[in-house]
Amino acid sequence: MQEAQPAYAAASATVDRPLGRAIVITSGKGGVGKTTTTANIGAALAARGASVALIDADVGLRNLDIVMGLESRVRFHLLDVLEEKCSLDEALVRDKRMEKLSLLAAAQTREKEDVDGEQMRALVERLRERFDYVLIDSPAGIEQGFRNAVIGAQHAIIVCTPEVSAVRDADRVVGLLPTDWRPELIINRLRPALVKKGKMLSIEDVDAILRLPLLGVIPDAPEIIIATNRGEPPALDPNSPTGSAYRTIAAKMAGEDVPAPTAAPKRSFFARLFGGL
Amino acid sequence: MVTSGKGGVGKTTTTANLGAALAVRGHRVVLIDADIGLRNLDLVLGVEKRIVFDLVEVLEGRCQLRQALIRDKRFESLSILPAAQTKEKEAVSEEQMRGLVDELAEMCDYVLIDSPAGIEHGFRSAMAGATEAIIVTMPEVSAIRDADRVVGKLIEKDLPIRLIINRVRPEMVRSGDMLSIEDVCEILSGELLGVIPDDEDVIDTTNRGEPLVLDPMNRLGAIFDKIARRLEGELIPFTVLEPPTIFGRFMDMWKAKAG
Amino acid sequence: MFGFLARLFYRSSSSETARKRLKFVLLSDHLALAPDVIDAMRAELLAVIARYCDIDPSCAEVGFEHREQGIEMHATVPIRALTGRQRPDLKVVRPSAQLSQAAPVVAAEAPASTVASELPGIEWGTQAPLLDEEPSDDGAERKSDETATGEKSAELEKSAVEGNAAEPASKTLPVTRKKHQKSGRTYPAAPSSTREHVNGERSAQG
User: Fold this and answer.
1) Is residue C110 predicted with pLDDT exceeding 80?
2) Which of B143, B204, B254 is closest, CB to CB, to A276?
3) Does C21 touch chain A if contact means CB atoms closer than 8 Å?
4) A12-48 pLDDT, tens digit each
5) Contact flag A67-B142 (C-beta cutoff 8 Å)
6) Which of A121, A154, A133 is nearest to A53 (CA)?
């Protein structure tokens, strides 16, 4: 907190900057990329110099530690902190690549019902005092775990894939969030080639149904699977197309004026072949 | 029950297609959508406009079970019991679910319960009615970890477990960028029921609300037919993923590069 | 360009990484032990062995494997030589009959002098509550160990720590061999129980 705030932070924080922003990343449907999104936005924000805390709220099915590649460093978890078995500092796992990125892992052997909503709210509040961003990775569904993830946040990012079931669930989740929120949308796993063939909903289709401000579009790429295998968020890889999409999102969150996201322009066969070489 | 731990691995698609494949083979099948509040089985099967009553209304006694069942127009012997969309999962207790499944089991040959993601209340009530479990997973670290958690829960209840590995990309397995079937089976130690490759047709058919099994030319339809036959107890060998060729490898690399 | 060629000619194997990470994570989940607790357990186990012989901790491997019956822990600890702090009272603690049935281990008993020079890598498995298990009375040296304290299982630790003069001078390989299979979900927290026990013995003696 003593460090001078970089200029970019001005947009996302007031002058005295009392508290950071607590943002829940949710989707309704599982497997659309909430955890990957949380990890990558967090990494991209931290790479810009912001201090970021990631909370894995998926008690019992934690995965943020795996995606971040920090599973071997997790010693204490969320419930340990809530139940005061350890201090917040002991439980926060510092990222191995970036000083300013920390993870608070979920408990794996406990149930979501073990989390007390009010304690969760207080915890997020404490983290906001110390970090510019607190990103909360919500579990799938709309049960207790989802409610616990939302409780301390003031803003939501909805992750959705261009599939009917994901869009429907996203719509349902928006309806469950506080009415004064204006959740932002990330469309994940877009395959421009399929959209072109008419086999996948387009950005416009999803936009027309959900009517949420579009924060970003992430292309579908096998590199995400590889990155999860390795535990390295692609947001830190300057050559990765998904990484660049995540960095754009982080820039937008930090208040930079970035052009509206569109599907990646489809290059011709030869352009792609030689672009690769 | 069809379950997975992690969401988005293809539980609902698998339930719908396996149900359709069993129906095609002449069995009477009922699919229960246990994902109350986030129902999607109706969308995958394209019956969303025909829903009159739902699971919760049946349990609350507001309608007859037969009134709530939606008969699929394409497969005579396939019916769907949709989930309530505006209720909470807590609206269904484990006892209620057990009673309902018992009642349905008397009417038909297979009751497939599409479990919600996670291991919360919705999962537990779906599990309460089941006598065996199919775990759908993907060759990804997080999906397998979640599946492992579910395996633990199912073992506690003594439910037999079988595995369907979904979204396998043979070219990525070959290039060493995806866990292989053997890896997944070794880690989860369950009986393998089927392997489903990653295919864009799945998105397409879900958009349309048509099960893959409808199309006799579709390779995924054939795979679900095999899974259905394995479920009947038939012994069917697994197709070996096609061996890599130089050209194939080059294409994989290129595809990986081009994204 | 290079990346493309590298991908074409060398197979990067992120699935290998994924496999290793998964095994590690699931183990940690099943044992309900935090990864650093496993590390601490490893360090303590090695420290115990190091009291008896000269080992190279950097070459030691403590691993877990999923077996049908549950999780099995095994350790491979290359021994360079017995330490200069050899005591006359060192002895072998054998696994109890029940434990050896569960997982028979080839016993490697030999006089310290011969073993010391030629131990490329002793497979060394241990049950979590290292010294709380009562050893079986199946060896001559075991019988002679029955001392007034009545707690035979503590003898190894005590004699190592205190150098109990009443102990008979049986110079055998000071390697504890216990192989045990146990359901992962009830795996006890190893380090704490071991440490408590050692401390308890020390305070009793001191």
Assistant:
1) no
2) B254
3) yes
4) 444 455 689 999 999 999 999 999 999 999 999 999 9
5) yes
6) A133
